[in-house]
Design brief:
The complex is a heterodimer. Chain A is mostly helical. Chain A contains 13 helices and 2 strands; from the N terminus they run ααααααββααααααα. In chain A, strands 1-2 form a two-stranded antiparallel ribbon. In chain A, helix 2 crosses helix 11. Chain A is globular and about 50 Å long. Classes of the chains: A mainly alpha, B mainly alpha.
Chain lengths: 320, 319
């Protein structure tokens, strides 16, 4: 094949590559512009800060989900961890003096769930879907048995502040998200740990050959995901104020959708936290737009379903 | 630890897994009979069989899909949609009932074909495709109705409470469906192709086996079974409800895994799934007798899955 024929053949795929790299930013921009034109209330400061408040807990979960997907995994237990953390938040006296014990217990549950996921997946070779599904069910049952179906009590005020207050218009939970996103992005892109994560997910055989303890890297991803989900659950319990057994319901699906939309490949080894966060932003804007434009709320679910299939098809690369 | 693990692997190789499940069923049954004198009665036994019907049918379809190496997460929403369509279209009219029955079966097959088509032609993993179609179907169901809707003509509940040869109609239907499918999987070429495709997709394709046909068939069958499960559910509940199928998505996977079918595809079989279904129903029934709340059923279901997946080691690629 001559050189020119080769470059011609590559032309469309290069354009697609550009679209894959920058498409998500354009989609987000277009969504915001279109919604703002259709509904002026969309761009008011109140609505924007409300959207950011809602986006932050999802964003925190997405960071963990991205780390897990990078090592060819999937974490379905995040929503269950969130709800359990929220139940823990109301278990103690509901005063600020108990904020630290609440935090520690919730984190312990989240990290332990992640550890169990990681061990099942690496040591027993269980598929991530099934392992996290089982821990999700287990945690859900324990939570229900503990609360007898009806949790009650108050969230310590400090979590209310973190989850629902703003500092000159900037939500506190958004600040936490930004700090976490920065820390984990630096870890992923600037440290050996990060390169090991990408290699473990991208080419497990190679990772083993160069002496990477892939199992430890994989377990670490699940533990981080569990911990971040617990943190998100505490913050989200502060956002909703009252706690039921289903705080964070749907976050497992939403966080996976966000990561896929942001270009994180389910086949592992490709994608970034920033991409996942852009995906989360699109989801939150879409949900908000559905309400602002005045569609029935059921459209949120239908649009989510379409979006995940289309986004996954958009990023797919033929391997054979 | 290693010796324990290898003993497990030895015990569960080939038919061993199925025998373990049957053994567990026997142990649970004996435990139940000792514990409560009402447990061992014929009426309770047929009760267990009857209540297992919808789950068994959904799991039957799920088994075929999982043997192809895929998964169907849209079944729960499909059960919900089919059940509200069934009673909504019927609205108490016996002639409309037949229209409704045919409609929901066609809807089920159609959804299955969409799932297969999307994962084949878009190149997206079935997990993601069916997660998406599941969300879409749930949304459509809620747009259609948010409350229980319609009613079935008189006598439709015979399907749930009627008896054939002393057994519930649903149980007889279930066993017939499982046996027929098991024979199909062993004796009919398409059944063998399903195993071959799940075991080694590339190899099967290179041998010229019809991968497209296999996937369309497996997902279409799974959709159809979800609709049939909805028929039995509506017969018991009297009307379709928009959230009635929600739990089926994940609970339909438990019996499949417990029955020894690997999520990585190509291994297992439908009779294992049937035993898995009976184990789960027996356990739930037993917990009811011990007057433990449904919360504990969740804990135990989670534990069963964890134990089952730790016993059947998946040596192949992960999903």
């Amino acid at each position: 094949m001559t050189q020119s024929a080769q470059s011609q053949a590559q032309q469309p795929s290069r354009m697609l590559d550009v679209a894959r790299s920058y498409g998500i930013h354009l989609v987000l921009l277009a969504l915001i512009v279109v919604t703002a034109m259709l509904s002026p209330a969309f761009v008011t400061g109140n609505n924007i800060s409300n959207m950011l408040l809602q986006a932050a807990p999802l964003g925190i979960v997405v960071i963990g989900q991205v780390l897990v997907i990078l090592v060819r995994g999937l974490d379905l237990s995040v929503a269950s961890v969130m709800a359990t953390a929220a139940v823990v938040a109301t278990t103690f006296s509901g005063q600020d003096s108990d904020a630290l014990p609440v935090f520690l217990v919730a984190m312990a549950i989240g990290l332990a769930t992640g550890l169990l996921n990681g061990l099942l997946i690496t040591k027993r070779n269980v598929s991530p879907f099934l392992a996290t599904l089982a821990t999700m069910t287990l945690l859900q049952g324990m939570r229900f048995a503990y609360t007898q179906g009806a949790p009650s009590g108050n969230v310590p005020p400090i979590y209310r502040v973190l989850g629902s207050q703003t500092f000159y218009g900037v939500p506190y939970n958004l600040m936490i998200l930004i700090v976490l996103a920065t820390v984990f992005s630096v870890l992923l892109h600037k440290t050996t740990y990060g390169r090991r994560v990408y290699l473990t997910g991208g080419n497990p055989a190679m990772a083993r050959l160069v002496g990477i303890h892939s199992d430890r890297i994989t377990i670490a991803s699940y533990v981080i995901s569990g911990g971040l989900a617990a943190l998100a659950g505490l913050i989200y319990s502060g956002f909703v104020g009252i706690v039921d057994n289903w705080v964070g319901r749907g976050f497992e699906l939403d966080s996976i959708v966000a990561a896929v939309m942001g270009g994180v490949a389910l086949s592992g080894g490709r994608g970034s936290i920033i991409g996942g966060l852009f995906g989360a932003a699109i989801l939150v804007v879409v949900f908000n737009a559905v309400l602002m434009i005045g569609f029935p709320i059921e459209f949120q679910i239908i649009i989510k379903g379409f979006v995940i299939i289309v986004a996954a098809a958009f990023y797919v690369r033929k391997t054979i | 630890m290693t010796t324990v693990a290898s003993t497990f692997t030895f015990l569960t190789k080939r038919r061993g897994g199925l025998l373990t499940v049957i053994g567990l069923i026997c142990v649970l049954a004996i435990f139940g009979i000792v514990m409560s004198d009402k447990f061992g009665t014929a009426s309770n036994a047929s009760n267990i069989l009857e209540q297992a019907t919808p789950l068994a049918l959904v799991s039957l379809g799920q088994t075929l899909v999982i043997i192809t190496g895929g998964i169907d997460l849209s079944v729960g929403s499909l059960v919900s949609l089919a059940s509200v369509l069934l009673s909504g279209i019927t609205a108490g009219d016996p002639t409309m009932m037949y229209v409704a029955l045919i409609t929901i079966m066609l809807v089920g097959i159609f959804v299955g074909l969409i799932n297969a088509g999307a994962s084949l032609y878009l190149g997206v993993h079935p997990l993601i495709v069916t997660l998406g179609t599941g969300a879409i179907l749930q949304g459509v169901t809620l747009l259609y109705t948010q409350t229980p809707i319609g009613k079935m003509p008189k006598g439709f509940d015979e399907l749930a409470y009627g008896r054939v040869l002393g057994l519930p109609i649903g149980a007889v239907f279930t066993i017939a469906a499982f046996v027929l499918t098991a024979v199909f999987m062993r004796k009919v070429p398409l059944g063998r192709y399903i195993y071959a495709t799940g075991d080694d997709a590339l190899g099967a394709q290179l041998m010229g086996l019809p991968r497209t046909k296999v996937l369309f068939f497996a997902y279409g069958f799974c959709g159809l079974m979800a609709s049939v499960a909805a028929i039995f559910l509506v017969a018991r509940l009297g009307a379709g409800q928009p959230y009635t199928g929600q739990n089926f998505t994940l609970t339909s996977i438990t019996p499949v895994v417990v029955g020894g079918t690997l999520l990585s595809g190509g291994r297992g079989g439908v009779m294992g799934t049937l035993m898995g279904v009976y184990l789960v129903s027996l356990l739930n029934n037993l917990l009811n007798f011990m007057s433990l709340s449904t919360h504990y059923q969740l804990i135990i279901q989670g534990l069963i899955v964890i134990i089952a997946v730790s016993v059947y080691v998946e040596n192949k690629k992960r999903v």
